[in-house]
Amino acid sequence: MYVSPRTGRRALRLLLSASAGLCAIAVAGGCTPGAGPVSAPSTRAGARAAAPVAASELEDDYREVIANVLPSVVQIEAGRSLGSGIVYDDKGHLVTNAHVVGDGRRFRVTVATGEQPLTATLVSSFPEQDLAVIKLDSIPPGLRAARFGDSSAVAVGQIVLAMGSPLGLSSSVTQGIVSAVGRTVSASSEGGGIGATLGNMVQTSAAINPGNSGGALVNLNSEIIGIPTLAASDPGLEGSPAPGIGFAIPVSMVRTVADQIVKYGEVRRSGRAALGITGRTVLDHSYRPSGVAVVSVTRGGAAEQAGMRAGDIITKVGNTEITTITSLAEVLASRSPGEKVRVTVERGAAERTVEVTLGEI
Question: In this structure, what are the phi and psi dihedrals at residue 98, rounded to the nearest 5 degrees?
């Protein structure tokens, strides 16, 4: 099992503390010849003394991560909206959310190494994955590119820090854990949102607020593992944010999209599965959502090649029932291009199932 140097030091400290505890227990139990009894209060006192030491060591870890990563996190002003971004490379490319840049092409960027805002220009935006790349017009001294981690190493329970400019408070840091991985979420189209359905998201308990979007979700090895993008809303509180439930785009997708934009100026391979249709939600006789009507099929696309046509009503993909266009987008977000799936459709009074080899957005 690979253990990073920092992780190794923490593990060693814990091991030494555990060993010391075992010695105290062994002595108290009289297993060491000639040793006198050790009172319980002494053991409890030792535990109380060890707690502040462990807390201090964790604080040191936090400070080191913040010192390493915060210089790579920027604040982005796009018209009246404000968000965050990450320094992607030493050429001045910054990666952020598509909903942060919106329809803008010119931006004001405040970097950690200077007080005066810099100017930046849009390279390309990819709303389907809520990612965008902009580029500084001039590169300031000391600009530091972030280090990116490995999505496959992200685990539930892992301590993470979220860095960005929540509510315009630049260089803010919040702390939490990875609450879940592999989430599929749909972003609202209200208030400047893009309405995209995003798969394989990292769920975190670190506070995510307006302005955090496009910033950094960081592990204790000072590596970016995701871009905070949205927070869950509580329908019982009129859409107010649900505390402790935020979502970040995984670093693997960030690299896939940003690398292509930097190299080609556009995304050529999204890694997102597609049926190759346009559709709309249909209602049953009780006015409840009951499927997705195919409005058109893309010529040569996955649906057409499988024999689907305009007028079909999609009711199931695999074993998942489809009731709305959002539910269809969510099930496709969890699939991969080239994957074969069985799609159930209603055509007139008949129901049929076709095998579709998924295409790519």
Answer: -65, -35
Question: Known catalytic residues?
Answer: 99, 130, 213
Tokens of 282: 């249909």
Percent above pLDDT 90 for the chain: 67
Question: Which of 264, 284, 305 is the C-terminal boundary of a domain?
Answer: 264
Residue 319 maps to which CATH number?
A: 2.30.42.10
Report the C-alpha gap between 331 and 293 in whole angstroms: 16
> At residue 186, does pLDDT exceed 90?
no
Residue 103 lies in a domain: yes
Q: Is residue 64 part of a domain?
A: no
Q: Which domain holds residue 314?
A: 273-360
Give the CATH number of the domain where residue 123 resides: 2.40.10.10
Q: Are residues 85 and 52 in the same domain?
A: no
**What is the phi-psi region of residue 232: left when phi exceeds 0, alpha when psi lies from -120 to 50, beta otherwise?**
beta
Residues 259 and 155 in one domain: yes
Number of domains in the chain: 4
Alpha helices (runs of H) in 29-116, residue ranges in sequence order: 40-69, 98-101
Q: What's the start-to-end Cα distance of the chain, in Å?
A: 37
Q: Is pTM, for the whole model, over 0.85?
A: no
Residue 48 to residue 55: CA distance in whole angstroms: 11
Distance (Å, whole) CA 279 – CA 343: 14
> pLDDT, tens digit, for every residue of 251-294?
999 999 999 999 999 999 888 899 999 999 999 999 999 999 99
Strand (E) positions, the chain?
73-78, 81-87, 93-96, 106-110, 118-126, 131-136, 159-164, 172-186, 197-204, 216-218, 224-234, 240-250, 273-274, 277-283, 289-297, 313-317, 320-321, 340-347, 350-357, 359-360
